[in-house]
Structure formats: C-alpha cells, structure tokens
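Lay summary. Proteins are chains of building blocks that fold into shapes, and those shapes determine what they do. In this project we predict the shape from the chain. Here is one chain we studied, written as its sequence of building blocks.
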Amino acid sequence: MSVSPEGAGARPRGRSVRFRLLAIALLPTLVVVPLLLGATMARWNAKFDALLASKVHGDLTIAHQYLARLLEITGDHVQALGLSALFRDVAAGRQDSDLSELLETRRRALGLDFLYVIDPGGQVSAAAPPATGAPLRADWPVIEAALRGELRTAIDIFTAQDLAALSPHLEERARIELVPTPNARPTDRAAETSGMVVHSAAAVRFEDGRVGALVGGILLNQNLVFIDTINDLVYRAASLPEGSQGTATLFLGDVRISTNVRLFEGKRALGTRVSNAVRTQVLEEGHIWLGSAFVVNDWYMSAYEPITDSYGTRVGMLYVGFLERPFFEAKLSTVLSVVLAFLVVAAASVPLFLRWARGIFRPLERMNATIAAVETGEREARTGLKHADDEIGRVALHLDHLLDQLAERERELVRWNDELNVKVAERTRDLEIANRQIEATTRQLIMSEKLAAIGEVTAGVAHEINNPVAVIQGNLDVLRDVLADHPDRGRTEFRLIDEQIDRITQIVNKLLQFARPEEYAGFVEANAPAEVISDCLPLVQHLLNRSAITLVREDAASRLIVMNRTELQQVLVNLIVNAVHAMPQGGRLTLRTRDAEHDGRPGIRIEVDDTGVGMSEEVLARIFDPFFTTKRQQGTGLGLSITQKLIAQQGGAIDVRSTPGEGTTFSIFLPEAN
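And here is the predicted shape, written in a compact code that computers can read:
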C-alpha cells in the first residue's frame, strides 16, 4: 500500500515540513550566525579591553621598578661615599681639600641636587651647595635612621622653606603654577611650592667614634630626565600602534610636577591636576587605578598607583598610560569589517539555500506521510517512490526496507542495549581505575622532575660562585703580600673582605648540601638542645621584635643528641620562622625541650608552640609535601619537606598538632647520644 501526500492529513504535515525546512535553511544564516557574531564580538571586545588593562598594568610595574631602583641607587651612592676612605680622611682633616669641596664634587658626579653632613649633635657641618644659613630639618625619619647607624632612602615632601634652606635654586625649581583642569577637585591654590624629593641618609663615623649622617637627595619637580627615562623604558619605539603615544607622569598630591603629557605642541602639562575620581581612589583610598581616564585633553588607557613618604603617608602618584583612540578605531574597523562580510555572505547564500530546499520538499513530504500512516497502525504503508534521483530519494526507498525489518531490529536493539549497558559499566570502572593510577604516577613524575631540576640548578649556581670566590681570595692574598711592609694599611678592609668571603663559602656549602645531601652530610656531634636553640634565636630576633611576639623558653632536657649542629639549627630556624608568620598580629612563641621516650628509645623532644592562626585538616595533610605552601609568594614549599628529611636521617620523628584560630605545635623527637 502506497501513501500519497494528497491523502487525508498529508497536506498539513507537508506544509509543516516545508516551513521547518525553510527555517532550518535560513535560521543559521539570518539569526544564529548574527547572534554568535554578536556574542563573539562582545567577548572579543571585553578581552581586548582586558588586554589593554593588563598591558598598562605591566607598564606601571616597569615604572614602579625604575622609581624603586632610583631610590636604591641613590642610597647606595650616599652610603658608598660615607664609607669611603677619602671621605674619612677629608672629614678628619688628613687631606688638604675642604669637606664642602668634596661634597660638591661628589654631588655633581652622582647627579644629586643636595648633599650635606650632619654631625652627632644634629648640626650641619658641611653642605653642597653651600647652606644659606637657614636651619635645616634634622627630624626626618631617614636622618633619624642614619643617626642610629642605618641606611634609609624614601620619598619625602619638602616645603618651600625646606628647599630654600638648601638652595634658592631648588625652591625656584619646585614652584609650579597651577593650570585650571576640568574634572579636578576645586582648589583656591595658585601654585604648588612644595617639592617631592628622593631623600637618602647613611650613617658616617667621626674620629671620636660618634655617628653622624650623610644626607643627599634629588628633587623630582620638573625633573624631565627622570620622567622621560621612565617613558623611554616603558614605551620603546614601535611598542604601540601607529597614532598612539605613551605618557608618564609624577604627581605631588594631585598636581603634575613632572610629565611628558603635552598641553599643546612643545609645552608640557606641568601644573595640571588629576581628576577628582582618580584622586579619591588612589590618594585617599590607596587603590591602584586601572582603566580609561581623561588625561588633560584626551582619553588614555591609564594606570595610577599611590606614592608614600617616609612617614607612610600617601603624598603623590605615579602614572603611565597610552592614547586610547587608535585602539578604539582599530576595534571599530574590525567590527565594521565583520558586519560587512556577513552581509555579503548572507546576500549570496540565502537564494541558493532556498533553491536547494525546494528540491528536498517533495521526497520529505512523502516520507512524512508514510511515517504518519505507520504511526496510526498502517504497517503496510510505503512511500511509493519507484526510483531515486538524489540522496533524499534513496533515503525514501530505504525507508520501505527499514519498515519491513523494524520489528526484528527493535528486538535486536533491546538485546544489544542491555549488553552495551553492561559493557559500558565495566569499561567505565576500568577507565576510572586507570585514570587514578595515571594521575598518581603523573604527580610523582612531576615532583621528581621538580626536585631533580632544583638540585641541578643549585649545584650549578654553587659551582659558578666558587670560581670567582677563589679568584677574589687569591688576589686578596696577593694584595697582602704587596702591602706586607705596611701591615696597618687596609687591615680593617682585609678583615671585612675575609669575613664576607667566608660567608659566601658557607652559603655555597649549604647550596651544595641541598643539591647533593649524600655528599655533604656534615659533621655529626653530640649537642645540648638548649644551646642550639640559644644559637638560633639571634638569627630570628628581628622577626620576633617586628611582630611583637613574646618568647617563652622551657629547657628541661638533660640528655644530649647526635646531629649536625648546623642542620639542627636549620630545622629550628625554619619552624620558628613559620611560627612567626602564623602570628602577624603578635602572640606567644614557646620553645620546650624535655627528656622523652619514643618507640622504646630514649631521647629528647623539642616543641615549637605558637598561638597563631592554626591550620585546617586539609592543610595539615599536605604540609610535608614538597612545594606545598600557604604563604604564596613568601615561600617555596620546601622548608618542612627538608626539615622532615633531616630529622628522619637522624632516626628521629616530627609531628604536628594544630587548631584553627588557636595555634600550632610542632614536636620533634631525636634519639639520645650514646
């Protein structure tokens, strides 16, 4: 029995197939593709903007590093001058030249704007350029640190009076007339008279042994060399697309005091001010600004970060950015190109799709009518096609054959489905087991590769350091022979060099011990644990003082232990440092030693107990794994792993107890020395 599409009920179904086929042909081109293009372009635009923000953030990082490097170099120069033999000789009167002449010569050579010496009484004894007679402040934190024997460099804000006391030229250079700026916070000031200064002070010792200070600095107001160097470092040639340009600016408060942003051709935008929104977020709230911002007269992709002085107060901002217009034009051009290409493709393809669809309508309608008849119980219904001109026609012919075999196929499919479910379940279990084995093996391989790589790198670094140390030591011996007739000359310097060479040698030995512990096992001797703890405390005392931590010692052990003293110090220092990091707001650190038994063996037990933040069960399960750390950028994750290894080598054991919010206790057992 054949079924014709003209039969009852065939026309509505045929019309439905026709409409759906047209929809299938046109929807992808006219609806789905535009939606996908729109979503893709929106995501691309977001990614593009995120990429620009990431780039300007990287640019800000480079500028920040240059400013930090400038502070570091300034401090090093000032300290080097203060420690030089020439300075000591001139200051003590053993040279014919005047101290002020030496300061002026070195000031010019080092590129400093001022350089002066403060004696132990807090008075200026020499200055370059010559002091004007007005009193100079000696209560700066950097100067107070120098008088305590420390080197310190910071950004400080000098008032007009402070600058005038140093040099009228500095006062004049610092003064910048304010320029009215749209979107800036209203102000009644007409000029910025203060100066932002790279301020450095180093301790110097006089003949009587008292400590004074050598103070130097660089005024950053209108320091175009400084800001142009930053701009050249961040935005090198061809680093931005054609039409864009990079800019860098230093702000004192919200005023541009050094910039390469132009008001118009040839004139820099000195004295203009940042917008109130940026000022609020960066200066007042202390956050970094990343994003689009209106800079003087155009929109820039901008990054601002706050600058703090030696008092910890936010006093200015560092800015880098690049013109946004070329990137916007590039995005607009790309979007227009995509839209135009879509319109061209749609205009060419839609008529072709409609033509092809009409060739499919009729065979599909006959198949649709046949299937509808079979569904109503007419198992003898067939399409009635005698021959096939295309794939759709051949499908219609195969439909008749498939209907004849439908019942048998249904039974076979049920049987196959049951068998397939059983096999899939079995294969799934096998795959899960295999995946778990592969994951475990992969983790072990990765860890082994990391440890092997670290060992190789460490051994190589230690080897490379040994060669120049040997050359330094050899040449130092030659110098001693040359100066044999003058034993007092350079004695202090030789002693300091010897100490530093010995220090380098010890560090190299530690690196080699880490790289090849089996070759550098160290000397094993009997030690009293209380004495080793006492040797460790000076190494970490600065951490205890900084974190306001109370140290409690309970030394009750009477036995001795056999372990390399340096390795035991390494274990204890590592545990003490971890305890200090767990108490950022202060607390109590308790170090206990007592005689104990473990698995029937006599020995001693050392406990490091803190009242810090504690650890969860998940963290406790992994703390001895290599490279696992909770301190992010402060640690490598190897400390506790190495600690466990050193203890195990001596036949000891280490365990830990911790309660979140209450504290942690590390307990070490070491066998008694026989």
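What the prediction tells us: Residues 6-14 have pLDDT under 50 and may be disordered.
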